[in-house]
Amino acid sequence: MVFVLSGQSLLANHIRGGELSYKYLGAGSTAGTSRYLISLKLFIDCFQNNQGQFDQTVPFTVFRKSDNRQIGSPAIAPFRNQERVAYDPNSNPCILNPPTDICYNLRYYTQEITLPDDPDGYIISFQRCCRIANINNISGSSDDYGATYMCEIPGTKTLPAAEHNNSPLITGFDAVAICAGSAFTFDFSAKDDDKDELVYELCNAYTGGGRTQDQSCYTCPTPNPAAPPPYNSVPYRIPYNGPNPMGNQVSINSSTGIITGIAPQTTGQYVVTVCISEYRHNKLINVHRKDIHLTVSNCQPLSAVLSPDYHFCDDFNVTFQNGQANPAGSTYVWEYGDGSKKDTVTTALGMVRHQYKDTGTYRVKLYIYLANGACTDETETLAKVYPGFLPDFSSLGSCLLTPFRFTDKTFARYGTVSKWSWEFGDETVDTDISTVRNPVYQYHSLGIKTVKLTVESSFGCIGTISHDIEVRDKPNLEFPFTDTLICSIDTLQLIAEAPGTLNPVFSWTPSYNIINPATPTPRVHPKQTTTYFVNLNDNGCVNSGSVTVRVVDRVTLRMMPDTTICLTDPAQLRTMGDGLKFEWSPAASLLDPFVANPIAVPTATTTYSVISRIGGCSATGSVSVKTVPYPGAFAGPDQVICYDDTTQLSATIAGASFTWTPTSTLLMPRTLTPFAFPLRTTAYILTVVDNIGCPKPGRDTVVVTVRPPVQAFAGNDTSIVVNQPLHLNATGGDVYQWSPSTGLNATDIPDPTAILSSNQTYAVRVATLENCFAFDTIRIKVFKTNPDIFVPNAFTPGSATNSVFRPIPVGISRLEYFQVYNRYGQMVFSTSEAGRGWDGRINGQYQATGTFVWVVKGTDYTGKSVFKKGTVVLIR
């Protein structure tokens, strides 16, 4: 065996699939032998340095199927030819951002071999390192997990002596665009010259050559001979596996070999292996395998995707949407099958809502197109509209020793409930299921069990509902109260509840002053405190409990002392005693007049009375709540001032004393009219207290809003030529005033035009609507020359003066570019902003003394271009 490259490059990750097949050529030259042409097709990644895995020859190892024993030496197959299979990004204009990296170099190796006819047949294997790196559905490194490609030749026990077999020929095109999160189709279909029946399924990919195959030979990319079967599966990354290599939304049609579904959301490589079972005369004779890496790309196709049918069992107002996202600008046209008008929408996923007028099964059609009409797709589905389907069930039972009875209570407005599927949630067995309508089940363990019922109607409505039940070691026994108080003249009904029990039997003791002790609700009238005990028996499952009835001859009631509150404040009234029910009056100013300690909000001084009761016994009491108004505080109206200005506050009070906070920016803070001088917006709080009974202060706030400093800007100093119109542009406020008026067309606008014949300095006053203002100036130098761009011939970076190399545009309305180059032709500085220049640094480093080339271009105020170039000396 000859390899082109060294051991290290041999381990490059380029394998993207393979297929080993055979063709029967006829009887061998020796009796009892047969000739076969063994063919290997390797899928190699187009975009890697694929010489790293270019093998001149490959070994085919033959094993006897009966005992996996190697037969002879491996057959050495030479490289025959190579073809390139790639996806054309321009082949489908209906895919946005089409993939450009879907490409396989298909390498073919063939070798004729002669084998003795064997009862059990043969397995032929080829192993190789290494799969392409970063495979999404495989754990670990592709260096560790290579590939095994194999084929099986059936023996004479499987096929009669006169019959032979050929591998199926897979005919699908391998370079297919698969877009993340979108519907796709991949053709694994095959034709069979022997006319055998083919059955397709997704299966495990095998690992092969590389470190995991032979720990002592990490640099053995092609084991010779190959390891004997059986072969290990590659380690799939959860949630993927062989039957679900791209997730549970992707499947293969067992009859056609077409893979369809919704691609994973994560882009990248996915190993997909298909096993094709050959049946002849209803007998399995062979399983053919093909392994390929499919690429999920970040593209977006135009596709109409709907499920085969939809059941709408809740409402006539139903929602439809496409099964995947489409390119922006897609238009969706819906036809609902009920004779109503079509809907045309551009919403996300084409989502629409439609109101059906009646029940029925409707054929719904969806047509999608892009704005230019070049790309279209359509599909249809069935909408089964039968609303009013509400799954529900109830259960009776509570004890481990007794059965639980479940009752279906599903409501179906249309049709009838026709199918039931119960899961009782008993984790100790696998037989906790039932398909009868109202089953009975006895649990094998204690604890909370989640019972799930799935029901289906005769109109196809399907629903699932779950309830948690508790399996206990004794029946449920509950009491609304277990300790209560009555008056000696009263009769009380005791209550015991046994929720979920099938056949509860109650027994109360003692028999002292009790009526109907064999019921869950006996009546008692004890004259002294008594504890009544109850025993619950549910088919031998027993529980017990008790209720204590305390007896008094009269009601005790003590009232809180009278109190004083600030007017509009709430006050909580309080009682002490053993009363069970209360009734307060007057009730209008009470939040709840029937509790022991209600909240009162009186509008004036009020006396509240209360009646406290225990059954037929009662007691009365009262409490007075005096109200005093809050102190009055008015801090004055809010104000607005300019930055670094002062204003006077003006407050009034109704109280004994007051304070201001904060005081750090107040003059005379002990008066009602202090002066405020805040530098930022400040809220001043006036607090007033009194001495006439209300213990709480009155407060009010005045906000002094401080406008920020006016940022007056008249514009950057500039240079012009004589009589060149110069458009000024001041900013920073709302009102502008320029001076002097020399050469200006206006003085009260932010952007006047100046025409000058000599140097001029303008000042502008910039003010806000509150008359906060500031000044700025602009100096204009007037050249008595034609428009030009003046450029210095030397500069000294880092010095106090002449440290920046910049052009001086005169009469130039727009600087198109100013660029500086070093002697190697590298541009070291570029700008189109007048006034900017180069400081002599490249990548933050000052340059040494040297000569640099500059070019500059601008447009003068007449529209004429000015272009100049030259050199400048950088002096250090």
Radius of gyration: 47 Å
Low-confidence segments: 1-11, 212-219
Shape, principal axes of CA atoms: flat
The major β-sheet equals: 11 strands, mixed
Compute the number of structural domains: 8
Kindly state the percentage of residues in helix: under 10%
**Beta-strand content bin:** over 45%
Give the integer mean of the pLDDT values: 91
Cα distance spanning the termini: 68 Å
Strand count: 73
Number of helices: 1
Classification by helices and strands: mainly beta
What can you tell me about this protein's structure?
By secondary structure, the protein is mainly beta. The protein folds into eight domains: 7-297, no CATH class; 302-385, Immunoglobulin-like, CATH 2.60.40.10; 389-471, Immunoglobulin-like, CATH 2.60.40.10; 483-552, Immunoglobulins (Immunoglobulin-like); 557-628, Immunoglobulin-like, CATH 2.60.40.10; 632-706, Immunoglobulin-like (Sandwich), CATH 2.60.40.10; 718-783, Immunoglobulins (Immunoglobulin-like); 788-874, Immunoglobulin-like, CATH 2.60.40.1220. The chain contains one helix and 73 strands. The strands form 22 sheets. Strands 1, 2, 3, 4, 6, 7, 8, 10, 13, 16 and 17 form an eleven-stranded mixed beta sheet that branches. A five-stranded mixed beta sheet has the order 19-25-24-21-22, with no helix packed on it. A five-stranded mixed beta sheet has the order 66-73-72-68-69, with no helix packed on it. Strand 1 and strand 2 (33-45) form a beta hairpin. The longest helix has 4 residues, at 7-10. The two termini are 68 Å apart. Residues 301-366, 420-471 form the PKD domain. It holds the Pfam family CHU_C.
